[in-house]
Amino acid sequence: MKQVTISNKFITLMVLDYGATIQKLLVKGNDGNYTNVVVGYNHPSRYRLDDNILGASVGRYAGRISKGGFELDKERFHLYQEDGVHLHGGKEGFHQKYWTIDEVSTEDNPFIKLSYKSKHLEEGYPGNLTVSVTYRLMNNALQIIYEGTTDRSTVINLTNHSYFKLDSNPYIDECELQLNCPYRLETNEDLLPTGDIIPVRKSEFDFLLPKKIGVQRLDTIFIKDIGNEKVAELHSNTSGISMKVYTNQPAIVIYTSQDFPGICFETQNYPDAPNQPDFPKSVLRPGDIYNNISIFKFDIKQ
């Protein structure tokens, strides 16, 4: 397993080739000390035993797909499923693959670029798909760019699965969360979208104004406010660190673990879009380029 580190005067980033995983993301405070703002393991080998997908790149399709697969161009494709649900790319998704480290730059706006080639019918998906992820440090922000090309029509939905934790507290209940998301996708008992879009205002999912996360645990698909690239903000009064999330994707899945403190901001397309004709299209055609750009910007407040 290979590990690469890049840094600028605000941030130090450590990435593993296994799962194209963010192992550590160290943010410098006003006092000169660093806070690791993601949950992770100190020893890279531990990630091979990880069931939480800590910091990894998820694909070929992030989130859940129903019906044991999908139909594309009048052909049925069967995907690996457990209890009728296909999750995060299948039995061995992209988070369990070794990616190739293509390029590392330590110059201005340092970056790491990794790639993975997914063969036709891997996990049941059509097309030979080539994907890449570029982690770039831009002053006090981390930019993540996922790209993909295919030789045959397929579906794609990539995201990063880092659990953020902005302080040393043993919980995230006191952190304040704000989401520029006026709607969410309704889900059934299997957490699959029903197809219905529900307003969040005056519900337990209303984070339109900042409020403490509290004891509520989330596994929720929020729909981004149209025309607003900023989709979320997380703030810790303990450390004074704030994180703003920007994305070109239509949705963000907010997930908080039941087992440890941390919160995922999975910027992506709608889960189960291949089976929901009214959802944003998830199909990638030959000659087109899949593009998911997200930015995680950090600020330190006194």
List keywords for this structure.
single chain, 302 residues, mainly beta, nine-stranded antiparallel beta sheet, six-stranded antiparallel beta sheet, 27 strands, globular
Describe this structure in words.
The chain is mainly β and 302 residues long. It has no helices and 27 strands.
Would you spell out the secondary-structure blueprint of this structure?
Elements (H helix, E strand, L loop, with lengths): L2 E5 L3 E6 L4 E8 L5 E3 L20 E2 L5 E2 L3 E4 L2 E4 L7 E2 L12 E6 L5 E8 L10 E10 L2 E10 L3 E2 L3 E2 L2 E2 L11 E4 L3 E5 L5 E7 L11 E2 L6 E5 L6 E6 L5 E7 L3 E6 L6 E6 L14 E2 L5 E11 L2
Antiparallel strand pairs: 1-2, 2-3, 3-4, 5-15, 6-9, 7-8, 10-11, 11-12, 12-13, 13-27, 14-26, 16-25, 17-20, 17-22, 18-19, 18-21, 21-24, 22-23, 23-27, 24-25
The secondary structure category is mainly beta
Average pLDDT, all residues: 95
- In which range does the helix fraction lie? under 10%
State which percent range the strand residues make up.
over 45%
- Compute the separation of the termini in Å: 39 Å
Enumerate the strands of the largest sheet in spatial order, edge to edge or round the barrel. 10-11-12-13-27-23-22-17-20
Tally of individual helices: 0
Poorly predicted tracts of residues: none
Order of helices and strands: EEEEEEEEEEEEEEEEEEEEEEEEEEE
Shape: globular
Largest sheet: 9 strands, antiparallel
- The total count of strands amounts to 27
